[in-house]
Amino acid sequence: MASAASAARLDFATGEVRALSPAGLARQLAKGSELQSGETVQTGRDGRAQLRFSDGGMLSLQPGSEFRLDDYQFSGQADGSEAGFFSLLKGGLRTITGLIGRSNRDRYKVTTSVATIGIRGTEYTISYLDPETIAVATGEGRIEVCNKAGCVLVSSGEAAVVRGSEEAPKLTDSRPRLDPAQPVTDDLRPPFAAGETQLQTMASGPGYTMVHASNVAGPATQAGVTAQFNNFDLLTRADSAPHSFALTGGTAQASSRDGVIGWGRWSNGVREDGTAIPNFHYVVGKLTPMSELTGLGAGTYTYSLIGGSTPVNTQGVAGSLNTATMQANFGAGTMALTLNLGVTVAGNSYTFTQALAPMTTSQTFAFAALDDGALGTGSASGMFVGTNAQYVGVSYSVTPFNEDAIKGSAALGR
């Protein structure tokens, strides 16, 4: 257990794990490292960490996470001075609360970009689906998830999703997938929340396909891509002769699932000819082999949103991706697809839909006439990714009537 002078100690750390002081000074963390109130823990693409707090609480951080100890106070007993206020800035966590969360609920809170989580139980998880969407689930007890639009109680075995700070949290049937941090081999304690598979990350190299959209180009598909990813699963460069796309600075967002499909957005990028590509949205993955697509046989498959880039219109106004679903009806060598996209920008919400008539089964596809039923139009490029078409990647451009075009990308799974 961590000493009274420290807030927490690392039970184990693997991969890239570091701490940032309130002044921004960085230091590498390892098993046994201590953390102070005010510090931020960051895990890289291959980084995992488990923290043991001085009140007995435990917390497991997933790869690509950023977790800040805003205000942690514990004197060794529940005397009214204790405090456990934290912020999950990105990524995901699983936690079992200690004495602070059990004895004084008002003194414990986790803040995210879109909601705050108050403790009424002992075990829960939080995961970012994109920078403006979180999923939460309770293992034991209850948690209360709140933002300025409302609150929801999430009881044992239940899950909720929060899409932006303007939309109230809602219960959902889909639980966030979080893989446990894996302990180093000389730690004989059982892993925290053991029994799940290890999280895979995106590997740099050839053989990828990318769908993308930006302020200067509509949705497009790029085949034969050699992709470069950093330690946080961010695509930093995509080469597909004679074209190339590269991140040049500014802000960026990225996420992935199972090391199979990745998505994100660059605020600033450049093409091989020097043309700037502001707000470049992408999904990248390796196409499902045709033999597996045709081998699916006749049947209907429904894909739901697992993550996406933040939609941005051509004036730079960011919004939120509310829904994204696709239904694929496969026949004998044919497929019929229906896509639905729901976005909100500048307080206005739109839903664009298009159904494609049966066509020859293909690894990639395009929607050329998305329609919101109110004179809005749009288009999208898509692809099937992973074993047996487990995932779908989509880039899109939609234009509400008399409004600026909205660009984005989405990853869907079944």
UniProtKB/TrEMBL annotation:
Compositional bias per record (Basic and acidic residues), positions renumbered to this chain: 164-178
Residue ranges constituting the FecR protein domain according to the UniProt record: 40-143
InterPro entries cross-referenced by the UniProt entry: FecR
Region Disordered, annotated ranges: 164-190
Name the UniProt record assigns to this protein: FecR protein domain-containing protein
